Amino acid sequence: MFKYIKNMHILFLIIKSIILIISILIGVAYLTLVERQLMGILQRRKGPLVVGFTGLLQPLADGLKLFIKEIIIPSSANKVLFILAPIFFFFLALMNWAIIPFSDNLYLANINLSILYLLSISSLSVYGIILSGWSSNSNYAFLGSLRSTAQMISYEISISFILISICLISQSFNLIDIINNQQNIWNIFTFFPLFILFTISILAETNRHPFDLPEAESELVSGYNVEYSAITFAFFFLRGICKYYINVFIK
Length: 251
Fold this sequence. Notes:
By secondary structure, this protein is mostly helical. It has two domains: about 1-70; about 75-250, no CATH class. It has ten helices and no strands. Helix 4 runs antiparallel to helix 5 (about 140-170). It starts with a helix and ends with a helix.
């Protein structure tokens, strides 16, 4: 009987994980569409509006295109690490979503030290960037990985200090406790200067506009992922978007 209950619990957890992953991928795809539309408005140009009604099918078209394209592996690359790097990179981003509470009872895992878990998993992403640049056996990709690593580590330090400050005020490292502590007034209003610093830090740490300096198209040709194509490139892109919106949820 206990074995049956345990197996059902594991099955239920797997189903929840699959639903969460599918919801994240769909949500992130359309949040990316919103971001691209806003960037088009800010830069006085047209955003995606051709595929589907007002461009609503553009994320699906982009995902399908990247999924069916051929994966090109450079002949001089370390093929095992070249393939594993984007998978490892993307898997870490999905692991962070496990602790994000969407409501009082809607979450995958409730960890008392969830902030430390979040910072630990985020710091491991640096290894994915280093592996991708090194395994490509390209000077451009390697230099791009070094630039991206330096920027990620720098801004993760500022993110850590900001989050630790919030934890000290909330007297807890649990995200649910931190959220419940904001029932009367949101921390955005109480710590508005920290909110500004946190917004700048998450944009820079995830290489979002206008802080996408590690790419440096004029000299490094898109940075550490220059040798990647098809679904492997999509993993790098999705990781950055997922990490950015994780930070937005925390904020």
